[in-house]
Specification:
Helices cover 36% and strands 26% of the residues. The strands form 2 sheets. Strands 7, 8, 9, 10, 11, 12, 13, 14, 15, 16 and 17 form an 11-stranded mixed beta sheet that branches. Strands 3-2-1-4-5-6 form a 6-stranded parallel beta sheet, with helices on both faces. The protein is elongated, with a radius of gyration of 23 Å. With 405 residues, the protein is of the alpha/beta class. The longest helix is centred in the first third of the chain and has 17 residues. The model has no long low-confidence stretch (mean pLDDT 96). The structure holds L-homoserine. The site of L-homoserine has 11 residues, from helix 7.
Length: 405
């Protein structure tokens, strides 16, 4: 029997307990041993819940119990998750987590400890919820030099953008629904402002490129400025607005960015709706591959965590090598990155369009008959720096969204 402990009985932690309970026969068979939850750590009590029998409030009980071989960390956030994880790994226990914040910030160090101690730090659930992506990157795509990852990596923002587009609901109403369904973080800023997606693309890029990608170096914009009018424009030209996370190797180096992007139906991310996530990867010999599935929520995330528990059980005292080196990847400034730009301008198209063409060259005009006080245009593909310089010459720019079509 392999005894485990679950730290944190929140959305994901309680999901892990339920998944192990519901599917224990198959899980034990695949692990090659019986997995038993010995402790659940939480500050709260759950008097009418059978979990109460396993509940402890003191981490010392878990860390000092030599029978506990695997720890599931679903506390979230950096503290105290960092200290608990580090101590567990130093004790030779394996740790599985869904905690993207901790993996992005301290993953490199924690993986190093796991390697030295011949144990494992696994984090399949940290990116893409229930979608297998960390394991494929680590074991299936090893023949390739990966040169691009583009993904919809945040379920909450994708749910919000999809719902705003499909039924015209307000941002606040849709965000509240996402929180009620357990997709959004307690503090939704990390989702809405793009930081959650930024941490996830940093983790995936570190594993794909084999260098350390610091999430703090990644250019990040969220969806907080996207309005119902932007969505109306997007619809009018047959496009959708998605929060895309991209990291790419181009001629001059690597860049990474998270931002809302207008895409059309030719883009595989176009049909990724609601809380679903998708990750596109390009490898130099493989070509294109896409991973798609449930990107957030209690059970999809718990499914990935429990799969890691099974993997840890199969590799007790044997480290699974990860391609995440301590050498930091210097990311390019995004000023040299090229995009098309969808730009809204206040005023009359008849008066301003000549000037816009003089500054930007050939552009595609967009007008919506109900909007008489403004219009929009889409540029050709130009560098970010070039866009910025030219946009300063145009009066009345309301907003800009990158466009890839
Ligand atoms: N808040 C996250 C999301 C949860 O919406 O994608 C999964 O990491």
């Amino acid at each position: 029997m392999i005894q485990i402990a679950v730290l944190g009985y929140g959305t994901v932690g309680s999901g892990v307990v339920e998944v192990i309970d519901i599917n224990h026969v198959g899980i034990n068979k695949k692990a090659g041993d019986d997995i038993e939850i010995k402790y659940v750590l939480d500050l709260r009590d759950f008097p009418r819940n059978p979990v109460n029998k396993k509940l402890v409030h003191d981490f010392e009980i878990i860390i000092n119990d030599p029978d506990v071989k695997i720890i599931v960390e679903t506390i979230g956030g950096v503290n105290p998750a960092y200290e608990f994880t580090k101590r567990a790994l130093l004790e030779g226990k394996s740790v599985c987590t869904s905690n993207k914040e901790l993996v992005a910030k301290h993953g490199l160090e924690l993986l190093e400890i796991a390697k030295v101690k011949d144990t494992n730090y696994l984090f399949e659930a940290s990116c893409g919820g229930g979608i297998p992506i960390i394991r494929p990157l680590n074991s299936s795509l090893t023949a390739d030099e990966i040169d691009e990852i583009t993904g919809i990596l945040n379920g909450t923002t994708n749910y919000i953008l999809s719902k705003m587009a499909s039924d015209g609901s307000s941002f606040d109403k849709v965000l509240k629904e996402a929180q009620e369904m357990g997709y959004a973080e307690r503090n939704p800023e990390a989702d809405v402002e793009g930081y959650d997606a930024c941490r996830k693309i940093a983790i995936l890029s570190s594993l794909a490129f084999g260098y350390h990608v610091d999430f703090e170096d990644i250019y990040t914009e969220g969806i907080e400025k996207i309005t119902a009018t932007d969505i109306e424009y997007a619809k009018a030209i047959g496009t959708r607005i998605k929060l895309l996370s991209t990291s790419r190797k181009i001629e001059n180096g690597f860049y990474a960015m998270v931002s809302p992007v207008m895409i059309d139906a030719n883009n595989p991310m176009f049909s990724v709706q609601g809380m679903f996530n998708a990750i596109f990867i390009h490898g130099n010999v493989l070509g294109d591959v896409i991973f798609y599935g449930s990107g957030a929520g209690k059970f999809p995330t718990a499914s990935a965590v429990v799969a890691d528990v099974v993997d840890c059980a199969k590799h007790l005292h044997r480290n699974i090598r990860m391609n995440w080196s301590s050498k930091k990847l210097a990311l390019m400034d995004i000023s040299q990155v090229t995009n098309r730009f969808f730009v809204r301008v206040a005023g009359s198209r008849a008066e301003k369009f000549k000037k816009i063409e003089a500054v930007f060259g050939k552009v595609e005009p967009v007008s919506i008959s109900s909007l008489t006080e403004e219009f929009a245009f889409i540029t050709e593909e130009i560098e970010e720096a070039e866009y910025k310089e030219r946009a300063e010459k145009i009066e009345g720019i309301i907003s800009m969204i990158r466009a890839r079509f």
